UniProtKB/TrEMBL annotation:
Organism: Microbacterium keratanolyticum
GO biological process, one term: glycosaminoglycan metabolic process
Domain Glycoside hydrolase family 20 catalytic intervals: 127-309, 315-465
UniProt name for this protein: beta-N-acetylhexosaminidase
Main enzyme class: hydrolase
Key words of the record: Glycosidase, Hydrolase
E.C. numbers: 3.2.1.52
Key word Flavoprotein present: no
Catalytic activity: Hydrolysis of terminal non-reducing N-acetyl-D-hexosamine residues in N-acetyl-beta-D-hexosaminides
InterPro entries from the UniProt entry: Beta_hexosaminidase_sua/sub, GH, Glyco_hydro_20_cat, Hex-like_dom2, HEX_bac_N
Length: 504
């Protein structure tokens, strides 16, 4: 058995030069920084029985890991060389980590022995922001589940984890100044499932673990809508639910309850909740919460939501997000907000917009997104009919929703982030993010069914040059097929879509 023609390299590197033959890995004798060696050991342990040894020097090693200059010379870049040994050089620690992930993908079992092909790779990311989101508000996922999510995402070179921490169904983070948020508003999830929350120490552990995988945590406190849970704890801070005809009809169709002021909400209707925008105490709350979240978040971003405030007047919405973006900026963080916030003329300068409209924008979505750039910010692209990981693969798929689109793997792969919002230059696109909303995902196994393999498609969109010859659906489907053995060995509950010729 020989190496496959389509090596399972996801995302595909900038430059690959392959030679004849392969290097047998009789043992993994490694020399390099402790963190990089640990990442390699962890990655190989799930798939191989190779013994790991720490070589005393680079001269004595079969695998050499180091930080140094690379041909790209840019952050997160790396070089990988396989001849009579493996040498990986990262421009920084993150680049070295990504080189290790590529080596993990290259390792292949041939005739009962592990080896890697003779190859030269030079690689660097296209976008600085390569994000994946986990909604822990609709359904709660504990620290170990989040770590598992980080493991699987970072292996695909994602470098940002967006945690959606608050929504109508639950509040998931301890806030010292407002203790009832977790005492009263964290016990339940959508569909009446068990809830939960992160203590500050839990959150710090997630931050630490993400950083060890070179992922930046982006916390989201969704405001001024998606705030019913706040009213369960502090009813004086929220308006009465706005019960629309659409909310009633959707509740009847799904056999879900309507929201009731002061009571836990277990449905997943949207647009009915809002904080009291005219009350000064609301802004005391916002300032306290954002300040505490910022204090335990070393990353540069603080997401304040801003989507689907359907029961809020345009004037009230503008009043709120103008103040909220400024409060976020006062913490020393860069505010991030969903694209609706771009409808407001005086948001804090430099606020980053997250676009969740469609690949072909509808209504005012493109105009709202473009305003972030006009105010000195940039855009994270999360086109809902391409990147939303909670959409169904097909009409009969048992998990997920369909309101944005049915998104098979090919549709997830074939879109271009810089072509969505007219008039916005490519350099204003900070990157992309693939969100996983958790209305229908009750376990991490459910999450992984929806996320993989589509997360691999978005990882390639975020990392690989759009003009690369390998950036085609036919190339991708052949390469992602080769990830199946590793995913199976690592216990990833991926969906074996019939679009992909999966390898055993």
């Amino acid at each position: 058995m020989a190496f496959p023609e389509s090596l399972p390299l996801i995302p595909f590197p900038t430059s690959v030069r392959r030679a004849e033959g392969a290097l047998a890995l009789t043992s993994a004798r490694v020399n390099g920084p402790d963190d990089a060696v640990a990442a390699l050991r962890e990655g190989f342990a799930a798939r191989t029985s190779l013994p790991f040894d720490s070589a005393a020097s680079a001269d004595d090693a079969q695998i050499v890991l180091q930080v140094g200059s690379t041909s790209a010379g840019t952050p997160e870049s790396y070089e990988l060389r396989v001849g009579d040994r493996v040498e990986i050089t990262g421009a920084d620690e993150a680049g070295l980590f990504y080189g290790v992930q590529t080596l993990r993908q290259l390792a292949h079992e041939v005739d009962g022995a592990w080896s890697v092909p003779h190859i030269e790779i030079d690689d660097a990311p296209r976008f600085a922001y390569r994000g994946i989101m986990l909604d822990v508000a609709r359904h709660f996922f504990g620290v170990d589940d989040v770590k598992r999510y980080i493991d699987n995402a970072s292996a695909l070179k994602y470098n940002h984890l967006h945690l959606h921490l608050t929504d109508d169904q639950g509040w998931r983070l301890q806030i010292d100044a407002w203790p009832l948020l977790t005492e009263k508003a964290a016990s339940s999830s959508a569909l009446g499932d068990e809830g939960g929350f992160y203590t500050k120490d839990d959150y710090r552990e997630i931050v630490r673990y993400a950083a060890s995988k070179h992922m930046v945590l982006v916390p989201e406190v969704d405001l001024p809508g998606h705030t019913h849970a706040i009213g369960v704890a502090y009813p004086e801070l929220v308006e009465a639910p706005v019960i629309s005809d659409l909310l009633i009809s959707e509740g009847e169709r799904l056999n879900q309850p309507l929201p009731v002021a002061g009571q836990v909400y277990t449905g997943w209707g949207v647009g009915h909740s809002s904080v009291r925008i005219g009350e000064e105490r609301t802004y005391d709350f916002v300032r306290d919460v954002l300040t505490e979240v910022a204090e335990i978040t070393p990353g540069p971003y603080l997401h304040i939501g801003g989507d689907e405030s359907l029961g809020t007047t345009a004037e009230d919405f503008a009043t709120f997000v103008t103040r909220a973006t400024r409060i976020a900026a006062e913490t020393g963080k860069t505010p991030v907000a969903w694209h609706e916030v771009g409808a407001v003329s005086d948001i804090a300068e430099g606020t980053i917009g997250q676009y969740w409209g469609k690949v072909t924008p509808e209504g005012s979505h493109a105009e709202e997104a473009a305003h972030f750039v006009a105010r000195g910010g940039s855009l994270i692209m999360s086109a809902s009919d391409a990147t939303y990981l909670d959409m169904k693969y097909g009409a009969d798929f048992p998990l997920g929703l369909v309101w944005a689109a049915i998104i098979n793997v090919q549709k997830a792969y074939e879109w271009e982030p810089t072509a969505v919002v007219p008039g916005v230059p490519a350099e204003a696109i900070l990157g992309i993010e693939a969100p996983l909303w958790s209305e229908t995902t009750r376990t991490m196994a459910d999450v992984e069914q929806l996320v993989f393999p589509r997360a691999a498609a978005h990882a390639e969109t975020a990392w690989s040059a759009a003009t690369a010859p390998e950036r085609t659906w036919d190339s991708f489907r052949a390469r992602v097929a080769g990830l199946a053995p590793a995913w199976k060995a690592e216990g990833v509950n991926f969906y074996a879509s019939e679009e992909i010729p999966w390898q055993n």
